[in-house]
Amino acid sequence: MLEPVKLANFFTVFFSAASVIMFGATYALLFAWSRIRDRPRLMPLAYAAYVGLFISVIVLALAANLFHNTFWTFIVLLMLIGYLVAPHAIWHLCVGTHADEHEGEANPIKVYQQR
After folding, report:
1. What is the 3-state composition of the chain as percent helix, strand, coil, each rounded to the nearest 5?
2. Any idea what the Cα angle at residue 31 is, between residues 27 and 33, rounded to 5°?
3. What angle separates helix 43-63 from helix 70-99, to the nearest 10 degrees?
C-alpha cells in the first residue's frame, strides 16, 4: 500500500511536481524548436531541461514515497523513458506523415522547415 505524503514533504511535492511540468514543457519546446528551425545548438539546452525533469521526477518520487512500491517505481521509470523518447518519435512521425505531401522533393525535413 502507498504511504500518504507527510505534511513536511507537501511543499517539496508541490514544487517538484510544478518543476516536472515546467522542465517537461521546456524540453519539448526546445527539442521542437531545434528541429524545426534547424538550430542544433538548442539541442544541448533541450537535454539540460530533460536532466532538470529527471531530477524533479526523482525528488517527487522520493517525497511522495513512490519508491517503496515496485509498481510505482516501474511507473516512474517508464515515465522518464517516455519523456526522453516521445519527442523523437513524434518528430519522426510528423516528418514521415508530411513526406507524402512533398514526394518529388529531396528532404522532407528541409521542406517542413521552410514552411
Report:
1. 85, 0, 15
2. 120
3. 150
Its pTM stands at 0.79
Which residues are CB-contacts of 37 (< 8 A; sequence separation ≥ 6)? Answer: 113
Span 46-105, pLDDT tens digits: 999 999 999 999 999 999 888 888 999 999 999 999 999 999 999 889 888 877 766 655
Nearest to 50 by CA among 42, 40, 62: 42
Dihedral, CA atoms, 24, 58, 90, 108, nearest 10 degrees?
80
What does the pLDDT look like over 30-60, one tens digit per residue?
A: 999 999 898 999 999 999 999 999 999 999 9
Q: Which three cell numbers stand for residue 115?
A: 514552411
Per-residue cell: 96: 514521415
- Evaluated on CA atoms 46, 17, 13, 2, the torsion sign reads negative
Q: How many CA atoms lie within 13 A of 4 on its CB side?
A: 3
Reference 84, options 28, 17, 2; nearest CA is 28
